[in-house]
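Structure first, sequence second, as always.
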């Protein structure tokens, strides 16, 4: 049976590199490329038997770890491997805490990426050499907010992301092609699930998912 692997990254050159690694790891695999969280959701819905997602942490529609947390909540049976430009141990630790099956630095050579893909498809958790021992000694800062975020429906997650971008209800309704009343209902549900009372609190909450709120230099990773 042909395996399906979804490559989610908004950089075309790196998607091409990941696709090459996939073809070496699983020569007959079907590779699906997406460049945003919205496209990733659509890809998973159209490929319900997908075997693996290779996920860039920062893509349109995601705030740091929020895309990973959302994917693990909505599709718990689908392994997700984080692929990131950040090589901070804390980022790797949080990725595993939030449910990733592995972490591949973007600086890794092609044979290493291939090895990682093969390991995860065989059911292992893959981390760069020597990292597992180091992060086991680190304090976990996983919060119950990740569980709340994972409870959002796909549409609620999209609405939350647009709120975080500062869009008004009217703009969100236009972009999602629904009524403003529908958006208000979604926002009410989002506030209830996240345990917040207003937009400001919702935006502050989603910022918990940022890789490093104090260092925006990682925003392109």
């Amino acid at each position: 049976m042909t395996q399906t692997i979804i490559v989610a990254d908004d950089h075309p050159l790196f998607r091409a590199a990941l696709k090459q690694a996939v073809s070496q790891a699983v020569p007959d695999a079907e590779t699906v490329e997406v460049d945003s969280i919205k496209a990733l959701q659509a890809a998973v819905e159209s490929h319900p038997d997908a075997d693996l997602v290779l996920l860039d942490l920062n893509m349109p529609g995601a705030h740091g770890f929020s895309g990973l947390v959302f994917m693990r909540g909505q599709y718990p049976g689908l392994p997700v491997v984080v692929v990131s430009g950040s090589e901070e141990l804390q980022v790797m630790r949080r990725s595993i805490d939030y449910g990733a099956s592995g972490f591949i630095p973007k600086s890794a050579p092609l044979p290493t990426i291939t090895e990682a893909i093969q390991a995860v498809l065989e059911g292992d958790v893959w981390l760069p050499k020597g990292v597992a021992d180091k992060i086991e000694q680190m304090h976990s800062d996983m919060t119950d907010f990740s569980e709340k975020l994972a409870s959002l429906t796909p549409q609620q997650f999209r609405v939350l992301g647009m709120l975080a971008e500062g869009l008004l209800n009217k703009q969100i309704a236009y972009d999602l092609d629904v009524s403003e009343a529908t958006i208000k209902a979604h926002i009410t549900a989002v506030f209830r699930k996240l345990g917040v009372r207003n937009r400001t609190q919702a935006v502050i909450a989603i910022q918990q998912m940022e890789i490093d709120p104090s260092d925006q230099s990682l925003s392109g990773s």
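Margin note: The beta strands are 4-8, 30-34, 52-56, 80-84, 102-105.
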